[in-house]
Design a protein that fits this description.
- By secondary structure, this protein is α+β, with helices and mostly antiparallel strands.
- The protein has one domain.
- It is 37% helix and 31% strand.
- It has a seven-stranded mixed β-sheet, sandwiched between helices.
- Strand 6 and strand 7 form a beta hairpin.
- The longest helix has 17 residues.
Length: 131
């Protein structure tokens, strides 16, 4: 699996490929996030990073939150079918920067899906997994 972290200064040059993936993800967040805000956050580079997985068909926006690597948004074609890869990518990045776990925020269905990966519901829609 190839992980391509996008430098903050290059976000605009790849947004035409990944923006639609993130926008679709944001539409399912019930207003929790919006693509324009996320684009600004990754362009600023203050702890928020855009990572593309393999074929540009999956994009993840991550942000460090204490000792956790928080998945702010993830989008892509058949994302549920690619969760093994996506979760592995999140763990690789988290380990690389010294985080002891990963976290997500999502709807109740995501809580059930992410249980397979060791994530537990910690309230208010947040799920965490620690090594």
């Amino acid at each position: 699996m190839n992980l391509i972290p996008i430098p903050a200064g290059q976000v605009d040059s790849v947004w035409d490929k990944v923006g639609p993936l993130i926008e679709k993800s944001c539409r399912h967040s019930f207003g929790l996030e919006n693509a324009d805000n996320l684009r600004s956050r990754v362009r600023e580079g203050n702890g928020c990073v855009l990572v593309v997985v393999d074929d540009w068909g999956t994009a993840i926006i991550l942000e460090r939150a204490g000792d956790l690597m928080h998945v702010v948004s993830m989008g892509g074609k058949n994302i549920v079918c690619r969760l093994d890869e996506v979760v592995e990518a999140c763990w690789r990045i988290a380990s690389h920067v010294g985080c002891s776990g990963i976290s997500f925020k999502g709807r109740k269905a995501w809580s059930r899906i992410m249980g397979k990966y060791g994530c537990v519901d910690v309230g208010d829609g947040f799920m965490e997994a620690k090594k």
